[in-house]
Amino acid sequence: MTHYDLVVIGTGSGNTIVNRRFADRKVAIVERGTFGGTCLNVGCIPTKMFVHAADVAATPSESARYGIDEELLGVRWPDVRDRIFGRIDPIAAGGSEYRHHDPDNANVTVYDGTGRFTGFKELTVDNKDGSMSVFSADQFVLATGSRPIVPPIPGLEETGFHTSNTVMRLEELPRRLAIIGSGFVAAEFAHVFASFGVEVTIVARSNLLLRHEDSELAAAYTKIAQELYDVRLNHETIRVERRNDGSILVGMLNPDGADELIVDELLIAVGREPNSDLLNLAATGVEVDSEARVVVDEYQQTTVDGIYALGDVTTPHQLKHVANHEARVVKHNLLNPDDRIEADHRFVPHAVFSAPQIASVGLTEEEAKERGIPYVKAVERYADIAYGWAMEDTTGFAKILADPKTGQIIGAHIMGPQAPTLIQPIIQAMSFELDAYAMARGQYWIHPAMPELIENALLKLDLHPEG
Ligand SMILES: Cc1cc2nc3c(=O)[nH]c(=O)nc-3n(C[C@H](O)[C@H](O)[C@H](O)COP(=O)(O)OP(=O)(O)OC[C@H]3O[C@@H](n4cnc5c(N)ncnc54)[C@H](O)[C@@H]3O)c2cc1C
Ligand SMILES: NC(=O)c1ccc[n+]([C@@H]2O[C@H](COP(=O)([O-])OP(=O)(O)OC[C@H]3O[C@@H](n4cnc5c(N)ncnc54)[C@H](O)[C@@H]3O)[C@@H](O)[C@H]2O)c1
User: Whose CA is nearest to atom 34 of ligand 2?
Assistant: First the structure.
């Protein structure tokens, strides 16, 4: 049986591990899908390219109040789609070609197929060409990501539906789109398709969209979404059916009774589950938790010595910057077994690239209350800082929570223009333990730039640095 020093399963963030520092090791890389994984092919990158195009398409709806009259003459969907994938697909193909054939990878063997453990540290790959390979290794990296959850809604399979994996490659724009789910994917695709002129309905089981956000922010976002899209809150989807004319009937139940909706396409966006089941982990003794996530310690090592895991297959934060961070930790620990480093999950931020944009880090106010953590809070509206006032923003705000004794920021939640960028100095302050007052007063803030939103929110916190 062939034996490797290292086997990496999954080429999302897992693919970033192997470089020239592994040149003296015999390495195998296993990939069952498209090289580059979720973020590049069906996740962060194409979605944000669509979001940018959607932002451009949405400008006429905003511009008249500034005295600029614009008109959206049309959205050439095939051109929008093909520009995006015409740039992405060659990157994926190039990544595969590099690993398969570049002399840099003389020590690397690529298996295009699905890996599963068939013994302790023994992997069997069902190759796409129909052959099977069996090999062993001293070390493994499990980087197999996650996939969209498909809920057991009667009629769904027969009717046909899209997930984030397929909806970006639609042949044509539908007239009407229903999105089942109310999280990140729902918020981003509602913005994209509605900006392109599609009638979007969001079917949400809960009473709020983005309900994992701070509740003040989720409520404000939900209110805006209700003005932009048809939002059905507290609606459980109970059946879907393809009608004779090709349209789709969505049957729902809400507290007042039954409800129905007719659309042309359906997007399922109810979360993602880890790809741990495909790996038959029991055969090698790697444990998973109750949500099928691979259990790891602070070094990203699984319950088996020498088998590491990273990204969506292990973390509850299904985010690319987390997968990348964990990949760096795993890489270091593979190269330096006697001087390993721990992963840092203290302040994991996220952003939703919807309209408006949202960004968040640390505790929500509800979490602080539930955990009995004392806090002071401040809310600053975009309308009250110069640039937001100039834009005549009426809905955006930043909310910051801080420890009343130390002034350390414990949470920040922003909704409005540039939110994912504005939050970065707060992440920095939290990571390097800079207190709110020192952060506000220990540096210049460019006037009249948008970060004054953060400066003012910090200064509003009821902290008394000078007694
Ligand atoms: C629509 C969408 C938008 C997103 N936008 C953002 C964003 O803006 N910002 C952000 O931070 N995150 C975003 N994410 C999340 C981000 O894409 C993921 O957190 C990240 O890509 C996870 O990386 P990974 O390396 O863990 O897994 P992946 O990139 O999914 O890589 C796993 C790879 O393993 C392969 N594989 C699985 N099982 C096997 C097996 N048994 N054998 C061989 N190969 C296998 C898969 O084919 C896949 O290529 C988005 C996700 C989606 C779906
Ligand atoms: N900008 C970003 O960083 C970004 C963008 C897209 C996706 N992602 C990642 O991908 C993950 C998956 O995104 P997502 O939007 O699919 O999941 P999500 O977890 O963000 O939201 C799913 C929502 O669907 C609801 N839901 C669950 N089952 C349901 C059902 N049967 N019917 C109706 N609603 C149901 C859940 O309560 C939840 O509110 C995210 O959690 C995120 O980590 C990140």
Answer: 181
Q: Are residues 138 and 282 in the same domain?
A: yes
106 CB-near residues (< 8 Å, 6+ apart): none
Same domain, 103 and 8: yes
- As averages over each run of 10 residues, the pLDDT of the chain (467 residues) reads 98 98 98 98 98 97 95 97 98 98 97 98 98 98 98 98 98 98 98 98 98 98 98 98 98 96 98 98 98 98 98 98 98 98 98 98 98 98 98 98 97 98 98 97 98 98 77
Binding residues, as ranges, are: 48, 115, 144-146, 181-188, 271, 312
Cβ proximity of 414 and 360 under 8 Å? yes
- CATH number, domain of 430, equals 3.30.390.30
Euclidean distance between CA atoms 275 and 342, whole angstroms: 24
Which of 9, 39, 350, when mutated, tests ligand 1's pocket best, judged by the most ligand atoms within 8 Å of its CB?
Answer: 39
Q: What distance in Å separates the CA atoms of residue 209 and residue 204, rounded to the nearest whole number?
A: 7
Residues 365 and 283 grouped into a single domain: no
DSSP bridge pairs for 412: 361, 400
Q: Say if residue 26 is in the same domain as residue 112.
A: yes
Task: Give me the number of domains the chain comprises.
Answer: 3
Residue 222 — left, alpha, or beta (φ > 0 → left; ψ -120 to 50 → alpha)? Answer: alpha
Claim: this prediction has a pTM higher than 0.80: yes
Whether 67 and 178 map to the same domain: the answer is no
* Residue ranges at the known binding site for NAD(+): 181-188, 271
139 within some domain: yes
CATH of the domain at 209: 3.50.50.60
Q: Are residues 367 and 388 located together in one domain of the fold?
A: yes
Strands 132-142 and 307-309: parallel
If we measure between CA atoms, which residue out of 30, 181, 189 comes closest to residue 116? 30
Which tokens is 41 given?
């092919």
Backbone angles phi, psi at 381, to 5 degrees: -95, 145
Considering only CA atoms, which of 16, 9, 12 is closest in space to residue 272?
Answer: 12
Is 447 catalytic? The answer is yes
Instruction: Count how many residues are written for the chain.
Output: 467
What's the domain range around 35?
2-145+275-335
**346 inside domain:** no
Is the CB of 164 inside a 6 Å radius of any atom of ligand 1?
Answer: yes
CB of 15 sitting under 6 A from ligand 1: no
Mutate to test the pocket of ligand 1, among 144, 146, 353 (most ligand atoms within 8 A of CB): 144
Domain for residue 344, yes or no? no
Using the mean position of ligand 1's atoms as its centre, give its distance from the Cα of residue 389 in Å: 39
Examine the domain organization and report whether 228 and 136 are in the same domain.
no
Nearest CA to ligand 2 atom 20: 183
What ipTM, to 2 d.p.?
0.98
Q: Considering the domain boundaries, does residue 340 fall inside one?
A: no
Residues 27 and 97 in one domain: yes
